[in-house]
């Protein structure tokens, strides 16, 4: 048994750290609804196609599939929370998992907040942190380890060309991802560019039937070319990877 906010929960219940993004878990304690796990409240502008309530016995982890109306499925989160409230006086031994289906939120606001970017020249540390946030915005996952791919001993012709390119050296461009074998994504040291770059990184649209997850500054060098070029590329997240579109 685990003690959380004076509430005992079975170790056999679905593990909080492995739940779907946006999930919140409730119990009743002294007839008061208490959140014992909240991966919902910190996300700005949260939305979901529907909300699923899974109900368990909090001491032996037995799941009750027919205890809620509408089979525990609701199109509105407030309706789901109202359904839980029906058990206020008889659900002291229950635990309610409110699970979003197709959960979305304002990822740009979540990662960068609403503060304006200060202008000026970014330090190496600031570029590394910005790269980490851009990877989170693009992949939905917090990157682990080194973000500067120059330090990761990656064997790549395009990365070598980027590192030796006079423009990259002069402008102190920070490479943080290698995409589709011939493209390096980078963060500029000029912070005045960051505001617009963040916007386009998080902008989704569909063109010719293809969904683009955003646009990001890049250096591209093809195997048949002697020189690389700078520009913006459209990308799409596929699984845990980023691909050019």
Detail the topology: elements first, then pairings.
Elements: E1 2-4, E2 7-9, E3 24-29, E4 32-38, E5 50-57, E6 63-64, E7 73-74, H1 77-85, E8 94-101, H2 107-112, H3 124-139, H4 157-164, H5 166-170, E9 174-179, E10 183-187, H6 194-201, E11 205-207, E12 210-212, E13 214-220, E14 229-238, E15 241-244
Antiparallel strand pairs: 1-2, 3-4, 3-8, 5-6, 5-7, 5-8, 9-10, 10-13, 11-12, 13-14, 14-15
Structure description:
- This protein is α+β, with helices and mostly antiparallel strands and 245 residues long.
- It has six helices and 15 strands.
- The strands form four sheets. Strands 3, 4, 5, 6, 7 and 8 form a six-stranded antiparallel β-sheet that branches.
- The protein is elongated.
- The mean pLDDT is 91.
Low-confidence stretches: none
Q: How many helix segments?
A: 6
> Beta-sheet strand percentage?
25-35%
Helicity level: 10-25%
* Largest sheet: number of strands, sense, barrel closure: 6 strands, antiparallel
- Distance from N terminus to C terminus (CA atoms, Å) equals 49 Å
Number of strands: 15
- Shape assignment: elongated
Rg, alpha carbons? 23 Å
**What is the residue-mean pLDDT, rounded to a whole number?**
91
**Strand and helix order:** EEEEEEEHEHHHHEEHEEEEE
**From the helix content, strand content and strand pairing, which structural class follows?**
alpha+beta
């Amino acid at each position: 048994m685990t003690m959380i906010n004076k509430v005992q929960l079975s170790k056999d219940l679905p593990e909080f750290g492995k739940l779907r993004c946006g999930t919140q878990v409730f119990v009743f304690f002294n007839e008061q609804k208490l959140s014992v796990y909240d991966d919902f409240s910190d996300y700005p502008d949260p939305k979901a196609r529907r909300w699923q309530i899974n109900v368990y016995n909090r001491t032996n982890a037995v799941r009750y599939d027919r205890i809620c109306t509408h089979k525990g499925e609701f199109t509105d989160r407030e309706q789901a929370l109202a359904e839980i409230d029906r058990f206020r006086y008889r659900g002291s031994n229950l635990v309610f998992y409110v699970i979003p289906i197709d959960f979305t939120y304002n990822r740009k606001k979540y990662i960068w907040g609403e503060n304006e970017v200060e202008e000026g020249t970014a330090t190496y540390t600031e570029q590394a942190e910005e790269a980490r946030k851009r990877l989170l915005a693009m992949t939905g996952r917090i990157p682990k380890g080194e973000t500067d791919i120059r330090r990761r001993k990656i064997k790549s012709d395009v990365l070598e060309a980027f590192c030796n390119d006079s423009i990259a050296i002069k402008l102190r461009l920070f490479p943080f991802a290698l995409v589709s074998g011939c493209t390096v994504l980078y963060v500029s040291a000029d912070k005045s560019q960051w505001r617009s770059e963040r916007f386009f990184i998080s902008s989704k649209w569909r063109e010719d039937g293809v969904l683009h997850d955003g646009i990001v500054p890049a250096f591209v060098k093809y195997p048949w070319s002697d020189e690389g070029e700078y520009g913006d590329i459209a990308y799409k997240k596929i699984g845990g990877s980023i691909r050019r579109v």
